[in-house]
Design goal:
The protein has 339 residues and is α+β, with helices and mostly antiparallel strands. It has two domains: 268 residues, CorA soluble domain-like (Beta Polymerase, domain 2), CATH 3.30.460.20; 54 residues, Methane Monooxygenase Hydroxylase, Chain G, domain 1 (Up-down Bundle). It is built from eight helices and seven strands, in the order H-E-E-E-H-H-E-E-E-E-H-H-H-H-H.
Length: 339
Amino acid sequence: MQQSVSTATAASSPQDDAPLPGLVWAFRFGADGTARQVLGDVLAAPEPGGWCWLHFNLADTRAPQWLASADLPPRARDLLLSKDSYQQMHGSEDCIYGVVADLKRDIAEISDDTGYLRFVMTEKLLISGRHQALCAVDATRRALEHGLRIEGTAALFETIVDEIALALEKMVDSAEHELDHIEEKVLSDDTVDVRQGLGQVRRTCVRLHRHLSGLRIVLHRFERDSPADLKPGLRLRAGKLAQRLDGLDHSVVEMRERSRLLQEELHLQIEEQTSDSLRVLSVLTALLLPPTLVTGLFGMNVKGLPFTETDSGFLWAVLLLLLSSAAAFVVMKRIGLIR
């Protein structure tokens, strides 16, 4: 495989220092695990015991063309070049390939949108690709630039998954802090601008759970179904990685349940406030109904209306209005409408 890939590289790169088409970065690792970032024909003249990591931007149309000519297993190459968003991992004796979910990376921060990392891994080479900028692979690159040593391709993939888990943990901690703040406001009846924040937390929890559950199921399945004759350099500690994600997913599920209960509590408070407002409105309507009836009677243009010939007729009419409201109040008090 390595010889064929090198041949394809040489064919596509006439100059020794020319980067591969669509290549985002490349690292050459020594036998001691030290990494050196390179640009040109990275697969030519590898160090004894060394190996390489090539990371491609699959949105660049030149990258799929180069990868299509690489000597990779047909299924691995098809999955690497596809746009399948289904998380999966497959293995054979000398190759592991698949798709795992990662968080998209904005210019300055991590977003909660999901992107997908595609990879093909042998003992001497890890080829990865993405269509959008991702968080975990970029964090791994920075760690390598700061001197992190990696023993092999399996350890590099485990480092990438660890970075995915670390980014998710940061998002979980941030969402949990926001949820604690919302809970304090709900319990103190300060529900101004709480509904929007609570809805955002629930949305984040749903996305994180979907992300984590898919990834940990893939790792558990690979741990259970991985080939028994897998080469030593490709043996992943998938079970350990899955256990870490299990604990994180448990925290997300608990936080999602908390947010649901808080939303129910918030709805109850809103319903109580609405009920109180309707009660006040009903009482005011009932108190004003008798005076309205009285004013309606005095407004009829017919003969025989009382107080029409009396100088103090207006005062008597006002007194009658007040007495009618007082009578309505006493009646509602006795029947329990006013507490």
